[in-house]
């Protein structure tokens, strides 16, 4: 009697890292600068630590659907953070080298938000490497020579 693998739970499929990056960006863009400057450490702490813990729960699950979605969501996270970094660097460049009369739109990010985004991306990188180890382990089990 063959055991059918069930549908993976939504907890395993949900992109916790990408969701925390999106929440961090939305909070930074919508809340006033004075309030965000006072409470940035708590906001980052509440978003980064749960994302890291919840993403680490996914490490042991190596079904192809979960691994594929993990790669897709990691790539989306890198894309989103890259666009945000590009916009922040554009604002810094325009403030330093372009005349003051030029009008430009860019995202203003304080250094601590950039640091929080880098930490979230490092978590994503660690998850990708752990996923590669799981894929190697799964393929080694299927190897008839082993």
What is the compact description of this entry?
The chain has 146 residues and is an all-alpha fold. Helix content is 75%, strand content 0%. Helix 2 (16-30) runs antiparallel to helix 3, helix 2 packs antiparallel against helix 5 and helix 3 packs parallel to helix 5 (111-142).
Topology:
Blueprint: H1 10-13, H2 16-30, H3 33-56, H4 64-97, H5 111-142
Helix pairs in contact: 2-3, 2-4, 2-5, 3-5, 4-5
Write a structural description.
- By secondary structure, the protein is an all-alpha fold.
- The chain is built from five helices and no strands.
- Helix 2 runs antiparallel to helix 5 and helix 4 (64-97) packs antiparallel against helix 5.
- The protein is elongated.
Number of helices: 5
The coarse silhouette is elongated
**Major sheet details:** none
Poorly predicted regions are: none
| Proportion of residues in β-strands | under 5%
H/E element string? HHHHH
Question: Structural class, from helix and strand content?
Answer: mainly alpha
Helical content, roughly?
over 70%
Give the N-terminus to C-terminus distance in angstroms.
25 Å
Tally of extended strands?
A: 0
Task: Average the pLDDT over all residues and give the rounded result.
Answer: 77
Rg, please? 20 Å
């Amino acid at each position: 009697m063959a055991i059918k693998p069930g549908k993976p739970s939504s907890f395993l499929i949900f992109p916790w890292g990408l969701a925390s990056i999106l929440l961090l960006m939305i909070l930074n863009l919508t809340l006033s600068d004075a309030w965000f400057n006072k409470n940035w450490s708590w906001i980052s702490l509440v978003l980064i630590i749960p994302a890291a813990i919840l993403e680490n729960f996914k490490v042991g699950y190596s079904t192809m659907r979960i691994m594929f979605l993990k790669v897709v969501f990691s790539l989306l996270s890198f894309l989103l953070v890259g666009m945000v970094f590009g916009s922040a660097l554009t604002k810094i460049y325009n403030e330093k080298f372009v005349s003051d009369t030029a009008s430009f739109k860019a995202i203003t990010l304080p250094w601590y938000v950039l640091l929080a985004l880098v930490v979230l991306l490092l978590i994503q990188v660690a998850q990708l490497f752990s996923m590669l180890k799981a894929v190697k382990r799964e393929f080694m089990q299927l190897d008839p020579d082993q």
